[in-house]
Amino acid sequence: MQTKIAIIDDHELFREGVKRILEFEKTFSVVAEGADGCDAVGIVEEYSPDVVLLDINMKNTNGIEATRQLLETYPDSKAIILSIHDEEAYVTHAMKTGAAGYMLKEMDSDELIGAIKVVAEGGSYIHPKVTHKLVREYRRLANQQNKGTGYQQPEVRVPLHLLTSRECEVLQLLADGKSNRAIGEALYISEKTVKNHVSNILQKMNVNDRTQAVITAIKNGWVEVR
């Protein structure tokens, strides 16, 4: 079964580049393109894509506003924001609007393909670099909330009761904001092996995506935020 994708970006060269990348994936089909966020609702109405890729910066209607309009009309739509901004405020705004994913345009092709697959299956995906910033912000707010209460962050307790030692290493590197490729380089294993470890981690932790895994790990004191 093919995943139908729409690409909405006001830079034609970028759209063409993304389209060519996605066409290499046999299970993907790019069914529509648009140059402005105001095209989103009409494209979904006409082509019913499974996933819509939206540039965050467009002249008339930006990607976040387009996502809001899209979900008001078609609440089951799945949108991924493509952005050059890695600041926490942009990500939070996008996810609150209902976007299922947030990817930086510096992503590599494997990251984009992986994100689309996760979102198409009902999960959410945030670029690893952005995930790390969100993790640090989460910890900062938690420390601020607990300031003056005498509460101290517990020492890291590696979850060997749930994960293998290698999976614990991968989980820590996920919390560090590392991509699959970077994790593979750090642990001297192939990217395919990393993907298998991540899949096992998500299954064992009963979460849908990497971001949920990291947040759960932080709450339980299973990883160090560094």
TrEMBL record:
GO terms for cellular component: cytoplasm. Keywords: DNA-binding, Phosphoprotein, Transcription, Transcription regulation. Signal peptide: none annotated. The modification 4-aspartylphosphate is found at residue 55. Residues 156-221 form the HTH luxR-type domain. Its main location: cytoplasm. GO terms for molecular function: DNA binding. Pfam families: GerE (PF00196), Response_reg (PF00072). SMART domains: HTH_LUXR (SM00421), REC (SM00448). It is found in: Cytoplasm. Residues 4-120 form the Response regulatory domain. GO terms for biological process: phosphorelay signal transduction system; regulation of DNA-templated transcription. PANTHER family: TRANSCRIPTIONAL REGULATORY PROTEIN DEGU, TWO-COMPONENT RESPONSE REGULATOR. This is Response regulator transcription factor. It comes from Siminovitchia terrae.
